[in-house]
Design goal:
The structure is a single chain. Helix content is 14%, strand content 25%. By secondary structure, it is of the alpha+beta class. A 3-stranded antiparallel beta sheet has the order 1-5-2, with no helix packed on it. Strands 3-4 form a two-stranded antiparallel sheet. Strand 3 and strand 4 form a beta hairpin. The structure holds iron/sulfur cluster (2 copies). Keywords: Iron, Iron-sulfur, Metal-binding.
């Protein structure tokens, strides 16, 4: 099971996830260069791992630190 941490270090994560802390501002969707962040069927947002380039921009722009790194 992958561990979720809030530690930001660009480019080093195994993946990214959006937590329930998301305020729905949309900044990460607009910023993601790969369009990897999408609305999920359950509400909230999901990071499509196959599209994510691990650039870390979503972590940088989120005003409430709701985007977290997922480390394997
Ligand atoms: S790390 Fe970069 S490519 Fe991946 S979801 Fe965040 S902004 Fe998009
Ligand atoms: S930037 Fe943060 S608060 Fe805004 S939509 Fe993305 S995860 Fe939610």
């Amino acid at each position: 099971m992958a561990a979720v941490t809030g530690t930001a270090s660009r480019g080093a994560a195994a993946g990214y996830a959006v937590t329930a802390a998301c305020a729905g501002c949309g900044a990460c969707l607009l910023t993601c260069p790969e369009h990897a962040i999408r609305p999920s069927h359950e509400g909230g947002l999901v990071v499509l791992d196959a599209l994510c380039s691990r650039c870390g921009e979503c972590v940088e722009v989120c005003p409430v630190d709701a985007v977290v790194e997922v480390r394997s």
